[in-house]
């Protein structure tokens, strides 16, 4: 439980900046094929935007963000996305994590690899974001109990 | 002792450095040469780092993700335990 910041200016700036950071995080994740970036960096950016919202607006607030209860589950889902993407290779008697075996119709092998990399980057970003948020929430709970 | 070998390192961007040759001095093929040569054809991705990280070395990245997840789970268990006592 975090109290919302008393100053409306701080709250507004936190809200606006968090959305800008989220858009930039999505850019970092999805543009990782052409520029520096990827799942780990994008996930850290997403987590930082949620920290900003937590500090500005208080912990359970009206604006949508990652709820405290589901953050750990989202981390597990992110890791699972990566693993399941890899297991598709095993099912078609190929190597683990060989994205040529992904069931994407009408694509060349190279494009399957392209999409496979994108899918695992999203999984990594979800896992990193959710774990950082879960640790943050747990530490804030500790502080509130003291 | 580590600093004394710095002058003997290959110049940055040296094409003939052992790291950039097709085969290493020991005669084995160099992985970086393969990655740079086939990265775009294999995955249609311009960022070679992404191809190596996500595709050629995908197992390593999977391990990294699992390490992050496990570290988070351990943190939550330890912190949650302290809260109860």
Structure characteristics:
A: mainly alpha, 4 helices, elongated, B: mainly alpha
Query: What is the SS-derived class of chain B?
Result: mainly alpha
Largest sheet data of chain A: none
* Distance between the first and last residues' Cα of chain B: 50 Å
Summarize the amount of helix of chain B as a percent range. Answer: 55-70%
Describe this structure as you would to a colleague.
- The complex is a heterodimer of chains A (146) and B (85).
- Chain A is mainly alpha-helical and 146 residues long.
- Chain A has one domain.
- Chain A has four helices and no strands.
- In chain A, helix 1 runs antiparallel to helix 2, helix 2 packs parallel to helix 4 and helix 3 runs antiparallel to helix 4.
- The model of chain A has no long low-confidence stretch (mean pLDDT 86).
- Chain B is mostly helical and 85 residues long.
- Chain B has one domain.
- Helix content of chain B is 58%, strand content 0%.
- In chain B, helix 2 crosses helix 3.
- The interface between A and B is large, with 41 and 31 residues.
Summarize this entry quickly.
Chain A has 146 residues and is an all-alpha fold. Chain A has helices at residues 8-30, 39-57, 71-91, 109-145. Chain B has one domain.
Furnish the topology, listing elements before pairings:
The complex is a heterodimer of chains A (146) and B (85).
Chain A: H1 8-30, H2 39-57, H3 71-91, H4 109-145
Chain B: H1 31-43, H2 48-56, H3 58-84
